[in-house]
Amino acid sequence: MNNTMATGIWHERARALDIRTQAFINGRYVESATGATFDSINPATGQLLARVAAADAVDIDRAVAAARAAFRSGVWAGQPPSARKNVLQRFADLILEHADELALLETLDMGKPITDSVSVDIPATARCIRWYAEACDKVYDEVAPTGPGALALITREPVGVVGAIVPWNFPLIMAAWKIGPALATGNSLILKPSEKSPLSAIRLAQLGSEAGLPDGVLNVVPGYGHTAGKALALHPDVDCIAFTGSTATGGQILQYAGQSNLKRVSLECGGKSPNIILADCPDLDRAATAAAFAIYFNQGEMCSAGSRLLVHESIHEQILEKVRDIAQTMRPGDPLDPATRLGAIVDAAQMQRVLGYIDGGRREGAQLRFGGQQVRHDSGGYFVEPTLFDSVQPAMAIAREEIFGPVLSAMTFKTVAEAVEIANNVIYGLAAAVWTRDVTTAHRVSRALRAGVVYVNCYDADDITVPFGGFKQSGMGRDKSLHALDKYTELKTTWLDLS
After folding, report:
1. DSSP structure class, residue 307
2. Strand order in 142-143's β-sheet?
3. What is the rounded CA–CA span in Å between residue 3 and residue 46?
4. Which of the residues are catalytic?
5. Which residues contact 177 (CB under 8 A, 6 or more apart)?
6. Which of 76, 272, 335, 400 is least crowded, fewest Cβ atoms below 10 Å from its Cβ?
């Protein structure tokens, strides 16, 4: 099938799509208590997709009450781990069975290319749920090495009611990173998706119910951050908040936790990740390709985007020319065209933010090598072409602040020590990369970089088995891997006197 035919099919499916727009509370879809809604806009066209229930504090109260009742009843937390595993496995199966529908919701709502939604987002979502399903009956508790007069048991117990607030850039993947470990360990959960991309999460809730999740165990409550999100973070009967989003909002979440019940908080926040290419880089073509995809994939709307490119002065021009060549193959296009590699920015406000940083880069004296413009005006959508600034100074805003768009800031260095100093001189510490053929240099630089994830001779390599999270103001706690279970469980020591 050629791309033109495939594009037509996706557009036809979009017109026929039945979009659910209500909150999902206690096993059923419900309107918001006030009847209020907000508009979900297709970022590729600027047109209305749907009017979504705008939940507020009353709706959060309803969801928390349902989650608490489910938890206290033991209908999920009291199930044998193997039983929870079977339900979550079925959940993963249903995600894959509805892959095209979920992918279409992701693309229409958020603007990413349909090829990415189909080949990356939906499979990764199902894989995450399935992996934590398998963990249900394979993570053991402990017996402490006490003396013969005592037996000390160390057991994990679910924290109870979890509130999860997730961003708009990878709506289902980010949701799965919370849902998987939270439900595997027996908690009940309230998911607050971003108001910019709530549609796939709303549909996901029903699939969880069909898989066998008891009523109240998984609730999805769409709404604005300053209403629904704030109410969830302040709620005195929520035991844990798991948040992914901006550093500024993460700081507010911490304050809300302190103002309420000192609930546990985990934060995966912003990034301004450095991608360091040393003079002895083993493969310049591969490094340049990785550098381009590190910032232009998903329209640059990634917390771990390699938005700062640090290149040794001896190979600086070679790398930037190669990045330009790759960027020319990533022109923004119709997200429903399978050939499109760069989609739309999520909404008009985010597009203006990105364009504002581009204007600021020019004013501060950075050299615009290519890009920098809004494109596809006739579509009515929000498209920004791949952009590269050169001669960027570390003090410039485009080198220090998270843009969350397809804007790359290139800098040069003379020594490895200088590169590390530049890399670490920001408030963030989410991801970083170093390219070198010397294994000693690789280890030394990796240790010196203050980041939660360091890639060596690659960028954005990923697997559910490894933890993800950051240092400094990029947050606290880890998603993915068995380490994520720590966020959703309490450790209990039970001491038996055998004397």
Report:
1. -
2. 142-143, 150-158, 489-497
3. 23
4. 268, 303
5. 128, 244, 468, 479, 480, 484
6. 400
